[in-house]
Amino acid sequence: MPFKPCDKCSVSEMALCNALGCDDLKRLSELAFEQSAQKGETIINEADPASYLFNVTSGALKLYKLLPDGRRQITGFLFPGDFMGIAMNDCYAYSAEVVENCTLCRFSRPKLEKLMRDVPDLEHRLLNMVSNELVLAQEQMLLLGRKTAQEKVASFIKTLYERSLRRNPLATSVPLPMSRSDIGDYLGLTTETVSRTFSALKKNGVISIPDAGFVQINDPDELEDLSSGC
Amino acid sequence: MPFKPCDKCSVSEMALCNALGCDDLKRLSELAFEQSAQKGETIINEADPASYLFNVTSGALKLYKLLPDGRRQITGFLFPGDFMGIAMNDCYAYSAEVVENCTLCRFSRPKLEKLMRDVPDLEHRLLNMVSNELVLAQEQMLLLGRKTAQEKVASFIKTLYERSLRRNPLATSVPLPMSRSDIGDYLGLTTETVSRTFSALKKNGVISIPDAGFVQINDPDELEDLSSGC
DNA sequence: CGCACAATTGAAAGTTATCAAACGTTGTGG
DNA sequence: CCACAACGTTTGATAACTTTCAATTGTGCG
After folding, report:
1. pTM as predicted
2. N or C: which end of chain A has fewer CB within 10 A?
3. Which residues contact A135 (CB under 8 A, 6 or more apart)?
């Protein structure tokens, strides 16, 4: 096992720090400020100056944008290894709120940019992460624009399930820390429609809800089919 | 006016080539292969190996993803200065088809990656472009998930109008090279709903259609209001 | 000029949203 | 430890918006 000088971060293999040599990792870790936050806390506000870039090390967050009348679109849920803080015109493009008590690695953006000039690997890594994020955003556009309520909910559960499999290949019970209302705002549906769709999937036997905050996947193949309308 | 060694590209101030010194620009231009394509041609196919990165120099394209049953989501329209070819797992994440006869600057991905190792400014520039793209994708998620048909169409026209203003600050007539069906697949609507909404906006006097393929903006402020439901 | 295709308009149907009420869960204070 | 309040979830009935299906009109091109 290679020596890991960044003692602040237990998810470095999937984070910004990945693919850096020991020296560079050390320089990056010197910039990092560890921060923890409680459920409900707002970490960044849309349109505020984008002073920091964050890396999630534990817990979960939601990113969202608002319309003037309060309608909300959640653009993503963040889990350990994910980053946030991408900006346009030096302002955040979304707000971020904690869904599940979390810890974050915070980097000053100017300092990080300075380090990136010295360590091209770091910029390369960030480019990869942002590119992946963009591909996922396009997948989400397909969901929002063209899928039915059932396909949306099935896709959402499937994505969480696959993420969970990557961390624990034997798991069948998937954590579901966000509310129905959050899920609705992520999928472009109302709370009620999300709830009804969960009920329908339970009735079909595709999923069960053993405990609040978890989904159990009984029929992964059927879930897959439902998620793209096969 | 600075010397521009990349004679292939008339939009370099907004493209990949921007912010490069003369030497680096020369090295980049040596990698570029100029290519032109006719309306209807498919330039890249979703899930094909991502061998190239493209920069649009003239014309227009659409990027799209398909569901198994043929439902289509257009994830973006590309105009001069835009790039395409971002990938995940070394495969394209979308297909690209020409909307209006276009010219492209094509870069071999491995060669470009090699050059990026030598020229960090280039990678920096690409990171900026991808980051902006991500912000726009999140804005589109808000549109797809939470806006009404009228808000969607008004937002779409407004975005085209603003892009057109940037190129020609006095223009009130905006080119609209894509079909109603393309617009529908971009906004998560049917052709019929798009057409009906255009008719309603004409009736209100917000827009006119002087010639096929163009929209004239009569009331930019009202358009702005309609686009976010004020 | 006429054919093929795109755009528009109309009528009916369907999916999802809205409004409303009941049920569960969680956390707190008596 | 229980009771209650507050909040989130579920379920039902109705309404609205958008889609679907169908027909007509308009446009571009051979």
Report:
1. 0.96
2. N
3. B86, B87, B88, B93
